[in-house]
Automatic annotation (TrEMBL):
NCBIfam families: PRK05406.1-3, PRK05406.1-5. Gene3D superfamilies: Glycoside hydrolase/deacetylase (3.20.20.370). It comes from the Bacteria. This is UPF0271 protein. Pfam families: LamB_YcsF. InterPro entries: Glyco_hydro/deAcase_b/a-brl, LamB/YcsF/PxpA-like. GO terms for biological process: carbohydrate metabolic process. It comes from Ferrimonas marina.
Length: 246
């Protein structure tokens, strides 16, 4: 049987968390950088516990005006400290409710920069190791970050996206491009089917790119997040794909 984790970025104030949480197996919870505060972390952790969903920290640039999606330049010690503080903030909230962190997934521009730039990858890796070496790192499938993290003895979960298009090099099409997002449910399901069952994805130029799909991401702030999640769960049940956090 094929096993797949379905993760979603939550605790970002987008109003869909209660509807999405029962449909997923792991949650990436904003921890005060691009979005979220202590109250939202408490609420989202409690919701994840109620539904048996794995709890992950979702650190991002402290740039809420741009929702953490604007690339910033930071020196490695400063970046490591910022990421570590955000992870520790969520860990404290989780432990207060008797829960443990399961994973870390960077947000937005930090996610993309750490996937391709060694110094950002290293800062992220060092921050995770400083908090808890057992934490899993969710990383863009096939990216250099995957290899860097494994060399540091972190357990890596390779992530793919239902609602984003890919470039021929396996990177995500930047959001500034008109065709970056998949907004039709049938197109999202087609991409999921190909990634999960065939281990490949159709890139923006029509080429087929090999891809490892350990976890599938939905963005909780997307207008189609809820119907996409519902359709993907229906597809998984039909294909006998088991939903399970790694």
């Amino acid at each position: 049987m094929v096993i797949l984790d379905l993760n979603c970025d939550l605790g970002e104030g987008c109003g869909q968390d209660e509807a999405l949480m029962p449909l997923i197996s792991s949650a990436n919870i904003a921890c005060g950088g691009h979005a979220g505060d202590h109250a939202s972390m408490v609420e989202t952790v409690a919701l994840a516990l109620h539904h048996g969903v794995a709890i992950g920290a979702h650190p991002g640039y402290r740039d809420p005006a741009h929702f953490g999606r604007r690339e910033l330049r930071m020196d490695s010690p400063t970046l490591k400290r910022e990421i570590q503080q955000q992870i520790e903030a969520l860990r404290e909230v989780a432990e207060a409710q008797g829960a443990q962190l399961h994973h870390v997934k960077a947000h937005g521009a930090l996610y993309n920069q750490s996937a391709r730039e060694p110094e950002y990858a290293q800062a992220l890796i060092e921050a995770v190791l400083a908090v808890e070496p057992r934490l899993k790192l969710y990383a863009l499938a096939g990216s250099p970050l995957v290899a860097h993290a494994r060399q540091a003895d972190l357990e890596v979960v390779e992530e793919v996206f239902a609602d984003r298009r890919y470039r021929p090099d396996g990177a995500l099409v930047p959001r500034v491009c008109a065709d970056a997002l998949i907004e039709q449910a049938d197109q999202a399901i087609a991409q999921v089917r190909q990634m999960v069952l065939r281990r490949q994805v159709v890139a923006s130029d029509g080429s087929l790119v090999p891809i490892q799909a350990d976890t599938l991401c939905l963005h909780g702030d997307g207008a189609q997040a809820l119907p996409f999640a519902q359709n993907i769960r229906e597809w998984m049940q039909h294909q006998r794909v088991e939903l399970r956090a790694p």
